[in-house]
Specification:
131 residues, alpha+beta, four-stranded antiparallel sheet, three-stranded antiparallel sheet, 7 strands, rod-shaped, MSHA biogenesis protein MshK
Amino acid sequence: MAEYSLPAQAWSHRSTAHLLPLLIFIVLLRILLSLLLLGATVVFAADPTQPPPWLQQQPETVVQPQQPIVVQQILIRSTGNRAVINNQLVRAGDQVDGAQVVAIYPDRIVVKIRQKRHELSLLTDTRRTSE
């Protein structure tokens, strides 16, 4: 059997310069893939037993109970009615601890809390039920 070989002159005009961009592309691609894989392991390295952050449910926010609205004083003046509620001096239209003061009367104060009107008074119900 005869072996086939190219003459030395055939190899002389071929150079490896046309392979250089391909070689650079392959090296950059390998670097990029290794960085992506390294980044993925860093994301999951926090706790391998937990699901990834984008699958975890957000913790429910605990609603703190509002402190009760307590009327401490009612001032009736010709210049305008005022009241002391939760240690704050207020007049109609003011906000105090999440409640809007709607009106101030000599015997009661009307406030709006979450779109509901409530009447507050200095006097407590002193009636007793018989046993």
